[in-house]
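To: structure desk
From: M.T.
Subject: fold request, one chain
Message: Could you run this one when you get a chance? Sequence is below, nothing fancy, just the single chain.
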Amino acid sequence: MNLWPAIDIRDGRCVRLLQGDFDREARYGDPLTVADSYVRAGAERIHVVDLDAARTGEPVNRAVIGAIVERCGVPVQVGGGVRDEAAAAALVDLGVARVVLGTAAVEDPALVVRLAARWPGRLAAGLDYRRGPDGAVHVAVRGWSVASQRKLAEVLSDLAAAPLAGVVLTDIARDGTGDGPDLPGLRQALIESALPVVASGGVATVGDLQALAEMDVGGRNLDGVIVGRALLSGQLSIAEAAGACRGDSSPSRGWLASSPYPGDPADGNRP
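Reply: Done. Structure tokens follow.
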């Protein structure tokens, strides 16, 4: 299972939102500095989300994303506001390894299928979902700010034939909370879709990662996991997280002591 350390960018800064709420933001400084620290610690890939673009469609952080791609030298997966071919092409031209389409995957799956055919293995779908009181699972769009009427299973079915690199599934209620990943929901996604599945939301401990790495549905496992706040806060180190993803029983804690981002956010700015 691949580890994707996450860097969410808003107004040019690395931030984390609690449950996708733009009014509950923790700030962690310069995104490029964070990316550098991850790579120095041994990260083999980076996941970046342009939160401004996700919300408005305007790619105001594209220069920062380009700098991360150019400087870090590892595959970078980028999502946020990629709603048409021009936006996807701009990120591919920047050298982004994987472009994640979220709102478009829900509202215009035919576009995603067409773009995936143009760039096989370079596109992923990002599906952010909420589970209602009745147990129904619906996806949200536009940076989690708008609830759609579409069910997760329906969207996965629409994308089944696309040559996608994978589908990133985020349980919005768990994102940024450290309450653990949505194991039943991810297991169901592996049943419903043959696409590679990347888990996101709620990861806080080595045990969380081990549970994800050990998930097996008919011989299929999760392709990857995105980890954000737990790494930024120093609760998990890159070495610990990568080791758990590999199945190591006692990965090193060596990065934790040297992390420039232990404890509270670097600038102490919480809502």
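Reply (cont.): The longest strand covers residues 2-10. Let me know if you need anything else for the meeting.
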